[in-house]
Amino acid sequence: MAENNKDEKLIGIVMGSTSDWDVMKEAAKMCRDFGVSFEARALSAHRTPDELGEWIISMEKRGCKAFIAGAGGAAHLAGVVASHTILPIFGVPIPSKYMKGLDSLLATVQMPKGIPVSTLAIGEAGAANAALAVIAVLAINDDDLKKKLIAFREKQSEKVRKATLPELD
After folding, report:
1. Which residues contribute to the annotated binding site?
2. How, if at all, do strands 11-15 and 118-119 pair?
3. Over the stretch 132-161, which tens digit does the pLDDT of each residue have?
4. Alpha-carbon distance 138 to 20, whole Å?
5. Which pLDDT band, with edges at 50, 70 and 90, does 6 fall under?
6. Which range marks the domain in which residue 61 is found?
7. What is the CATH number of the domain that holds 156?
8. Quick check: is 27 in a domain?
């Protein structure tokens, strides 16, 4: 990857509340592990819409290439982010208290035609996979990142090959 200026952030990670960090930190960890710059913020589609819009503009000016948005319940955040930018948006449904994230999944996946949000799995796996999806897109034009992604996949395959089942009782 080309040397980034200090302020450049390739990925914006946003969540509706600080309580969503337990899930969304998996996206941040994946970015960190691949050496991809990111900025993570808690901004609400409903409670801080102006600040959200300002942050998106700021991120674009600093070289952002995609956003990962995690939200629970009504889960409008990814759609609101998508309404402010033409960059790719990857939505992560956050598990909710009563519906275990099904409400978040349905709210995130039901975007109107013309405002796309790629929606991942509910929870931590969705957050990690959202980062991996963005990394895969960035790797199209970045040979070093492509090599890291191939090595990551091979490491996953090797872990499965070496796994053994426990003995029967």
Report:
1. 17, 20, 47
2. unpaired
3. 999 999 999 999 999 999 999 999 999 999
4. 25
5. low
6. 11-162
7. 3.40.50.1970
8. yes
